[in-house]
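sorry to bug you again but im stuck and you know this stuff better than me. theres a chain ive been looking at and ive put its sequence and its fold in C-alpha cell form underneath. id like you to explain what the C-alpha cell line says about the fold, in plain words if possible. anything you notice is useful, everything is just below.
___
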Amino acid sequence: MVNVNRKVNDQFYRYKMPKLEAKVEGKGNGIKTVIANMDAIAKAIYRPPAYPTKFFGCELGAQTQIDNKNDRYIVNGSHTTDKLQEILDGFIEKFVLCAECKNPETTFNVNLKSQKITSTCTACGHNGNIDMRHRLSTFILKNPPTDDSATPQKLKKVRDSQAKAEEKTDGSSFDGWSDDPLPSEKADEEWSEDTSEEAVRQRELELGDGIKGLTVNSDLTKTVEQRANLFYEFVKKKLGDEKLNDMEILGEATRLDIKDKAPLLLTELLFDENILEQITSHRILFLRFLVNNPKAQKQLLSGFELIVQNHKAVLMAKVPSILKKFYDSDYLEEEVILEWGNKPSKKQVMKDLKLKAKPFIDWLREADEESDDDDDEEVDVVYTHRNEDQINKQEAKEKESAEKITNGDDEDLDDDEIDDI
C-alpha cells in the first residue's frame, strides 16, 4: 500500500491505496498494457476505474479499453509501472485531492446544464470547480459517477458518530460537577460503541472496500517478520476451506506489503514431498505473485531449497525435474534460474542440491547460447519492386532464350535478350 497523496511521506497517513500493477501483453502493433488492480485503486480513491484509465490515455496519447463487467482496464502500447504511477499521481492531484486541504475526501457534482463539474470536500467543506480544459472533464460529463455505495460523506458520518461516542466515554459531555448519579450500565449500552472483534468486523463489512482502503492499516507499523507471521497464519487458517481463494490471499499479502516475500511462505505451506503434482494444482495462485517479479521468484527458490532439505531422501534425486516443472509452468524465468545456479553455496546440503540441479542448469544455458547464435546468423534478403506476374514473365522469357541457344537458334536473339540471359 502507498499513500494516496504520495507527496506525504508520513507512514501513519490514513489514506492508502494499492501500488499500481501493470502487465505488458502482446507484440508489435497489438502490444498493450493491462492495469491489473485498477478496480482496487479506484475504490481507494472514490472514483470510477474508467476515470483514471481514460486519464492514462489522455496523457499518453493512447487508446484505452474499459471493460467494467470483467474488471479489465487496458492502455494501448507498452508502458512501465513507474511511468503509469507518476501519471496516476497527476490524476489524483487534479481530480481527487481537495485544492484547499489536500485530502482525498472529495466527491464530484456533475451539472449537465451548465456543463461544469464541481468538487466538494467533506473534510474542510471546500467547494471548487474542476478544470474543464482537460479532455478527461469531457469524458466525466458524458459518464457521470453513479456508484455512491462508499462515499466520503458516509465516512464522515461514521467518524462523527465515533467521535461522539468517544466524547461520551471520556465524560466530556458533563458540564462541571453534578450531584446527580452517573448513568446506569443499561444507559451506557445505549450510546456506547461495541468494540468487540465481531462488531468491528461487521462495521467494516458495512463500510465497504472503499472506506477500508482509506482507513489506517495498523499492521503496516509492525516489522516485516511480524507481518510475515500474520500472513502465514492467515493462509494456514484458509487451508481448511474446500478451495483456496487466490484473490483473497493476494489481497492479504498486498495489505501487509509482503507480496515479494509471500512465495517463500506459500511454498512452506503448500508444498511437500509431492511437490511435482502440487506445482500444477497451485499454479494460478503462485503466478499472481511471480509474473514479472524476479524478487518473488528468488523467494520461491529459497522455499524450494527448504522443501528439498526437509524431504531430502525423496526429493534430492528429483531436483532437475522439479526445476524444469517450475520453468515449464512459468513459475521461474530463465535469468533467475541461471543466477541462482551460479551463486556459490557454503552449506554442504546446498552444494549437493545445486550439483543435482547442474544438468538442468547446463541444458538451460546451452539452449540460451544456441538462441543467441541463431540471432547472429545473417540472412540474405532480395528486395524487388516487380510483382509476381512480371517475375513469372521474365523467367519464361529467359527459359525460352536459353532453349534457343541450346538448339542453335541464337541468331534470332536480339541484344536485349542476350543481356537478360
In short: Strands lie at 2-3, 16-17, 22-25, 32-35, 64-67, 72-76, 106-111, 116-121, 127-129. The chain has three domains: 2-142, 243-376, 388-420. Confidence is low (pLDDT under 50) at residues 169-192, 209-216, 378-385. Residues 243-376 form a domain with the Serine Threonine Protein Phosphatase 5, Tetratricopeptide repeat fold (CATH 1.25.40.180).
